[in-house]
Every structure is written in C-alpha cells, then in structure tokens.
Write a structure and sequence with these properties.
Layout lengths: L1 H8 L10 H13 L3 H8 L3 H22 L8 E10 L15 E10 L7 E5 L3 H14 L3 H13 L19 H5 L5
Length: about 180
C-alpha cells in the first residue's frame, strides 16, 4: 500500500488492466442481458469498469456497423420504434432536472428476409431524430434515391390510417411528414 500511495503522489499512473479473459466474460454477460450489478457480483469487476467497457465495445460495434452496412440491396424493410426511459419515466421528470432523464426512443430498420439491421437511431420521438434515421437508412441502401423516394412518397400520400413503423413500405400509413414534420432531402 505504501508503494502504491508513493507512486500516485509522484504522478505515476498505475495501469489497472482487466485481462482479456475477464473482458470476454463481462461482455458475454452483458450480451446475455445480465444487469451491471449482477455482473459485478459474479466477476468482482467494479460496475464503473463494466460500464466503461460496455461503452468502449459499443463504440467499436457502431464503427463496424457504419463501415460494413453500406450498399445494401434490401427489398423489404420493416421499421419500428421501441420505447424506453432513462432514470425515470417522462411523467415523473420535474422541471430543472437533467434533460437526459425521461423517455427515449430507438428507431430501428430490419430487413424482412435476412433479419439484418442496417441502421438504428436513439433519441427523442421528434422530427429531428426521425429525419436523421431515415436519411441514415437511405444512405445505406444500394439505390437509395429510387427505393427510398418511393417509400417516403407513399408515406406522404398515405390514406390517414394509423401509422406503425413496422408496416414499413406499405402505402396505407399515416402521413409521416405531418406527424414528425420531416423535410425533403
């Protein structure tokens, strides 16, 4: 202990490196759906380390997804939105509390045939997030102008039926442009 304190006082940073085997166990447990505190109890790794490792692996996965999911030939896309919350539900958030608390939505596109997920977007349920999601999706398709313009036109000319993201390319959807205030690109 005396040696550790002397090194910290002198400005020498200690490298507390988690072995690769333990990193694999932690990420595997996260992928299986275990909570951070349960992983902490199972492995003895501190929860802050688990969270940092999760963010690091997530960032790497995002880079791989962004690089490899390009020029896709998706025929039928199913779009969906998934609701969740951070900290507490929106109805319990009080004025003056962090803007990061409350409802959060994950917009996701899934190819109906291959079950591949070409893109997703996490954010508020507003025009900014929806527009960014659709533009990102269009940039990943092989022929984004031809296929995607028809998709957006069909939504815009929908017959007013209730809109569900998972209906994807069906023409009988509520007007996405009116609902989210999307702009054309």
């Amino acid at each position: 202990m005396l040696t550790l304190n002397r090194q910290v006082k002198e400005g020498v940073k200690m490298a507390n490196v988690l072995p690769m085997e333990m990193k694999t166990v932690v990420i595997g447990a996260l992928a299986e759906g275990n909570s951070i505190r349960s992983i902490e109890r199972m492995t003895g790794v501190h929860r802050d380390t688990i969270m940092r490792l999760g963010v690091k692996v997530g960032t790497g996965c995002e880079k791989i997804l962004d690089k490899t999911m390009r020029n896709l030939d998706c025929k039928t896309l199913q779009l969906d939105e998934i609701w969740g919350f951070i900290g507490k539900k929106q109805k319990h958030v009080k004025r003056g509390e962090s803007a990061e608390l409350g409802d959060v939505w994950t917009f996701v596109a899934i190819d109906a045939k291959t079950k591949i997920v070409p893109c997703y977007r996490v954010g508020n349920r507003d025009s900014t997030t929806a527009n960014a999601f659709l533009i990102d999706l269009a940039s990943r398709l092989k022929k984004p102008r031809a296929n995607f313009h028809r998709f957006v036109t069909r939504i815009r000319r929908g017959n007013g039926a209730r809109f569900w993201w998972r209906r994807g390319l069906r023409p009988n959807c509520k007007n996405l442009f009116n609902r989210f205030g999307l702009s054309r690109w």
